[in-house]
Amino acid sequence: MAAIPATSAPPSFLGTRRGKLTLVLLCAVGFIDLLDASIVNIALPEIRTHLGFSVQSLQWVASAYLLTYGGFLLLGGRSADLLGRRRLLVVGTSLFGISSLVCGLAGSEGVLIGGRLAQGVGAAMMTPAALSILTTSFHTRGDRVKALGAWGGVGALSGAAGVIFGGVLTTEASWRWVFFVNLPVVAVILAASFRLIDAERPKAPPLRDFDTVGAGLITSGMLLLVYALVNAPSVGWGTARTLGELAGALALVAAFVFNEQRHSNPLVPLSLFKIKGLGAADVTQILAMAGFYTMFFLVTLYMEEVLHYSPIRAGLCYLPVTVGAAAGAGAATKAIPKIGTRPLIAAGALLGAAGVFWLSRLPVHGFTYLPDLLPGIVIMGAGVGLVLVGVQNAANGGVPADKAGLAASLITASFQLGGALGLAIFVSLATGRTNQLLATHTQPSEALTLGFQRGLLGASIALVIAAVIALRSPNVRVVDMAPGADDNQALPVPVASGSTPGVPHFSVG
């Protein structure tokens, strides 16, 4: 019998021009959403001066965005699955762009904070829609690893880029440009979305079966939880208000879980957490982002408040972070097919812990950039790249298409929740230490530095805990990703001789 002709595998979408442009578009969405959580921080002193914010209310310029972004993510992700991903991406991007314009033109506290709240809602629709489009468009295993690696790398770069861009724009133009810079990017995203992304007809259950009660419970619970976390440092962790808010948030989440177990079409099917690696990736990212986000916040304050750096100089100090993050993300993307996600996440968290611990020894006097700051931020940057690429692959790799938006919202929510949790806990540690020292008449610069050191030490411990959890979590490999997909390779086929067919042999995915 003649040899059976080999059938060629479907072409790689990432290998096409449209595939590459689609990946660039989707990564741009993730970049601008995550960038906006950090770019504003360095402009806060200028905003306070121009708009007359009080110290108490100034925190809400940053916190308002995190509040609605984290609060509406699960609803945004499920809506993308039900209503169509491109539709949610376009609506969310439009809202994000309009609210960015409102923030840039704001002439009062209320208008700016209201614009930031609306920005967060837009981002809560954009990010899960874009990430779910990515996981369903790049459906072969090889494409999916590379695409999720690019998405994770962009997430790793966004924190450092936000500080750099914020410093340059605030110093060279105006604080308003940290919002205006979004507008041309939004215009490009909207135009490219219609050209590159096909409209879809969702196959999800009809909207009349939508879990309205579940949506209300989890959105209210997330909003209250993030609100309690961002307010706790100023109100106090032990106050009745903070404890009551945290208890209320936990009660709403518990009621949500109870509702999901009994609803015929739950907003978040609990079976989703049976997907290998998803739950562990979410928990690991919460702890990791608590450490990484705190590092950017406290080290920036150290440079501006203790060293008296200008915003642009402080921003430029983070340029080497982008080198470390790019190296870590690139190494992770290449290594996942060989060793899986677990070793990469654990190694990245330990590298991050080492970098942040190095930074926790920043001196009060005699600061020198090369020995005191550079090694820590480069090592930390490499850790960020490894962790974010690893968790994105672990959390999204094996998710079925009809749950892609929901899984995307879960991993993004863990990113935002981790940042809010880290700031609430470790900034409180830093502030408490500083206040104790000031009460003993310690010099302000010394009191601030020692407080920052304690907060950074706590952040490094959080990263060590993340590494321990990662070591005990499932190791997601390429074979676990894109269920039912090929590996961008033609499978060998049997060759028969005589009348007896040979035994087929298959390559390992």
Main features:
mainly alpha, 509 residues, globular
Give a summary of the structure in a few sentences.
By secondary structure, the chain is an all-alpha fold.
Q: Report strand %.
A: under 5%
> Could you say which overall geometry the principal axes of the C-alpha atoms support?
globular
Q: Kindly report the average pLDDT value.
A: 82
Distance between the termini: 29 Å
The class by helix and strand makeup works out as mainly alpha
Give the H and E element order.
Answer: HHHHHHHHHHHHHHHHHHH
Summarize the main sheet.
none
Number of helices: 19
Alpha carbon gyration radius:
24 Å
What is the strand tally? 0
Give start-end ranges of low-pLDDT stretches.
1-8, 486-509
- Portion in helices: over 70%
Structure description:
Helix 12 (278-306) runs antiparallel to helix 17 (374-396). Mean pLDDT is 82; it is low at 1-8 and 486-509. Helices cover 72% and strands 0% of the residues. It is mainly α. The longest helix has 36 residues, at 404-439.
